[in-house]
Amino acid sequence: MLQKPNWDDYRFVLAVARSGSVSGAARELGVNHATVLRRVAAIEKHLDVELFDKSVRGYEISPEKLRLIEAAREVEAAVGAVERMAQAGEAPLAGIIRVTSTHTFCHSVLPAILSRLTAQEEGLSFELLSANGLMDASRLHADVTVRPTYKLPDDLHGDIAAQMGFDFYARGADVPEECWLGLSGPIGRSHPGQKLREELERRHVRFMAASDSFLTLRALAEEGMGRVMLPKFLGNASDNLVKVTPVLDVPPVPIYVASHVDLADAPRLRQARARIALALEAEEAMLLGGVLS
């Protein structure tokens, strides 16, 4: 009969899952490469399952093994909780939560929210991943996704936490009406981005520059390069921009807090989404048009 692995064995599996490589896990845990290989192999032998897809890109989690990995992460959080309960009597949300969102949210919205959450919960930390495109949550690149979108893709499950408004800005009202900054990449393919491009092409405007980042577009607009559509909270926060006449009506965009459908019911992630969603709800007035504090 195989000897049952202890909790320490699972730490090696989770370290490989986080880093995506044996060498990265070895650095994280302060052991050598061979030790990581041996401990992971022992777990896989005990469970009679291969947890990782091994390729030149590193160690990736097989989609069908996501629940096993998340179960191990639940154990990791629970072990930490037991230790803290012994010391302080209570241990709510803990462990590392990987949050992905757009460049704009990672820069201007989420840092303050996540800072408050970590201050409230001992043992809780976040890894904030910035990407305007949807990250591959099925590969455990992200636990929680914060996305302004009218509709979530089928592989994500979550709820609307707040809404975000858009408006139109320029360095000054004297910026010519035919000079505009274009939206490219994922923000250009979004519903507001597509509607704006269609309207501006109909008006035969001149695109002075374009970017896939609202932060970059704001900087270009502040240099007087053209008129631009921005999230209201971002445009209103600039001392160098003024509102200009809208060229179309843009409905507020819902902000979802979601996880991959296979992991959405995991208690730790469900609790993390609820905390982040509640914090975003408290910021809705700002997201719809208030000025950043």
UniProtKB/TrEMBL annotation:
It comes from the Bacteria. Gene3D superfamilies: 3.40.190.290, Winged helix-like DNA-binding domain superfamily/Winged helix DNA-binding domain (1.10.10.10). Signal peptide: none annotated. Pfam families: HTH_1, LysR_substrate. GO terms for biological process: DNA-templated transcription. PROSITE patterns: HTH_LYSR (PS50931). Belongs to the LysR transcriptional regulatory family. This is DNA-binding transcriptional regulator, LysR family. It comes from Celeribacter halophilus. The lineage of its organism: Bacteria, Pseudomonadati, Pseudomonadota, Alphaproteobacteria, Rhodobacterales.
